[in-house]
């Protein structure tokens, strides 16, 4: 077919170096003339190249060669693997060209400032844009309370170690939770108490007992699209958690790392129920944009200002000016809102497909979590299957998932939970991947049953 000739010709040009990573491909009009074909034929060829992750499109700009493409052999390898492991945003949906434009503009706008040390708190004009952006997430604050950080993980890591006005010492956190935060607690030698996240959220009565008796200075929570379960607290639960924090003098660190993806306009962050400073709001741009930006923010009370700025200065003096300026322009131009609309639709479709596949294929003895618009989900394996056993099986089947054990405190450790991320998986491969996971569970259970049968009576014959 003619469109396949176009595909082969474009791949050949890339592999021969005539088209390099980042280069713009010939326009649709130009190829219709070169191949004497219709526009639909060229469009079909470019769509096929996008599916193979060889090129990506930029609206109103054109098609470009994907960075890091290494030829036909690498593409076949990538196509053979179903990657539920990688947790970064879909690299083929990222706004490379748009943000490159913003970087260039930032160089022009802030070329003088790049030769000096910047404000530790962050570029003021960026904080003005961030304050406007946060209003869309129901976070109403002023630029003076916003602190730009080198990735939200930096804010979490610094805040864990700071003395808080309540004079308390211990941390309470959801179980399981973001592995980076658990590592921060280990690095600082902090005492931590966990509270389990189930399909119905957390036990608020148990949380009250922890607040009341365990000298809790800070409760860390991912209020929506929880990592790794994908769970989101209800507005009622968020309000009640804030009330408990007020009653027992506990601070809340609300990690809203993917709040931008929430299409539910009625979903409020915990910050909305107490904007005075009891709730510290932390947000990242890594999962919805480009992880390499290393940009995030924290909304802090004035009582933590001096201690936090000293800690930030000791960590890296200030967040890089160039990326701050580029994000400011990206937000100001309206490009971010257009990008987020696309991301919401894409992840919502993928999450729905994943939940449907779970329901259709996972055996009844396995459990699963997640939402219809979340980024992550977990699968609980039936006893006595261990996650490592399934990971080994799946690796041989070219399916990658994550072991969730590093996301638990020692007292909550589980070795039968895997985490799935939908970000890097093509929509058409989601169900196939879940089918292979289900087949792996069934096979491991079958092997275990055979072992048990033999161990009970070595002289008996196995069933026909």
Short description:
One of its GO terms (molecular function) is pyridoxal phosphate binding. Pfam families: Aminotran_1_2, GntR. The protein is α/β, with parallel strands linked by helices and 464 residues long.
Would you write up a description of this structure?
It comes from Paenibacillus hemerocallicola. Residues 1-68 form the HTH gntR-type domain. Pfam families: Aminotran_1_2, GntR. In the C-terminal section; belongs to the class-I pyridoxal-phosphate-dependent aminotransferase family. This is PLP-dependent aminotransferase family protein. With 464 residues, the protein is of the alpha/beta class. The chain has three domains: 2-80, Orthogonal Bundle (Arc Repressor Mutant, subunit A); 98-336, Type I PLP-dependent aspartate aminotransferase-like (Major domain) (Aspartate Aminotransferase, domain 2), CATH 3.40.640.10; 340-456, Alpha-Beta Complex (Aspartate Aminotransferase, domain 1), CATH 3.90.1150.10. It is built from 15 helices and 15 strands. The chain has helices at 2-15, 28-34, 39-51, 72-80, 96-109, 124-135, 152-161, 179-188, 204-213, 235-247, 305-316, 321-333, 335-361, 387-396, 427-456; strands at 55-58, 62-65, 82-83, 146-149, 170-175, 192-196, 216-221, 251-255, 279-284, 296-299, 367-368, 376-380, 399-400, 402-403, 417-421. The strands form four sheets. Strands 4-10-9-8-7-5-6 form a seven-stranded mixed beta sheet, with helices on both faces. The chain has a four-stranded antiparallel beta sheet with strand order 11-12-15-14, with helices on one face. Strand 7, helix 10 and strand 8 form a beta-alpha-beta unit. Helix 5 crosses helix 12 (321-333), helix 9 packs parallel to helix 10 and helix 13 (335-361) runs parallel beside helix 15 (427-456). The longest helix is centred in the last third of the chain and has 30 residues, at 427-456. Mean pLDDT is 89; it is low at 453-464.
């Amino acid at each position: 077919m003619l469109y396949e000739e176009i595909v082969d010709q474009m791949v050949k040009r890339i592999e021969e170096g005539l088209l390099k990573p980042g280069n713009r491909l010939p326009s649709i009009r130009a190829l219709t003339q070169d191949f004497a074909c219709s526009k639909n034929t060229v469009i079909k060829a470019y769509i096929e190249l996008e599916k193979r992750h060889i090129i990506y499109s930029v609206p109103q700009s054109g098609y470009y060669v994907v960075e890091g493409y290494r030829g036909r052999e690498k593409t076949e390898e990538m196509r053979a693997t179903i990657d539920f492991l990688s947790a970064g945003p879909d690299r083929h949906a990222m706004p490379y060209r748009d943000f490159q434009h913003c970087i260039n503009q930032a160089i022009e706008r802030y070329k003088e400032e790049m030769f000096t040390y910047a404000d530790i708190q962050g570029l003021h004009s960026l904080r003005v844009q961030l304050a406007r952006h946060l209003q869309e997430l129901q976070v109403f604050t002023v630029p003076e309370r916003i602190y730009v950080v080198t990735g939200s993980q930096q804010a979490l890591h610094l805040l864990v170690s700071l003395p808080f006005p309540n004079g308390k010492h211990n941390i309470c956190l959801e179980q399981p939770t973001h592995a980076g935060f658990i590592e921060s607690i280990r690095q600082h030698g902090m005492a931590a108490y966990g509270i389990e996240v189930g399909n119905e959220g957390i036990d608020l009565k148990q949380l009250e007992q922890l607040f009341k008796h365990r000298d809790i200075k800070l409760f860390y929570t991912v209020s929506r699209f929880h990592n790794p379960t994908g769970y989101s607290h209800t507005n009622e639960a968020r309000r009640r958690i804030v009330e408990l924090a007020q009653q027992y003098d506990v601070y809340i660190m609300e990690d809203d790392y993917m709040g931008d993806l929430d299409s539910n306009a009625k979903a409020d962050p915990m910050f909305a129920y107490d904007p005075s400073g009891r709730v510290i709001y932390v947000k990242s741009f890594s999962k919805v944009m480009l992880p390499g930006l290393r940009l995030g923010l924290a909304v802090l009370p004035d009582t933590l200002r001096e201690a936090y700025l000293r800690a930030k200065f000791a960590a890296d003096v200030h967040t890089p000016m160039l990326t701050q300026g580029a994000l400011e322009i990206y937000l100001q131009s309206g490009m971010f809102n257009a990008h987020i609309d696309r991301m919401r639709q894409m992840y919502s479709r993928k999450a729905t497909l994943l939940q449907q596949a779970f329901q259709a294929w996972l055996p009844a003895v396995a459990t699963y979590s997640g939402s219809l618009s979340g980024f992550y989900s977990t699968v609980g394996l039936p006893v006595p299957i261990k996650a490592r056993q399934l990971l080994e099986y799946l690796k041989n089947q070219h399916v990658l998932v994550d072991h969730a054990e590093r996301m638990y405190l020692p007292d909550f450790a589980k070795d039968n939970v895997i985490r799935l991320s939908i970000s890097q998986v093509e929509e058409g491969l989601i169900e196939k991947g879940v089918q292979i996971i289900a087949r792996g569970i069934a096979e491991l259970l079958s092997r275990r049953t055979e072992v048990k049968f033999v161990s009970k009576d070595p002289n008996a014959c196995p069933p026909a």
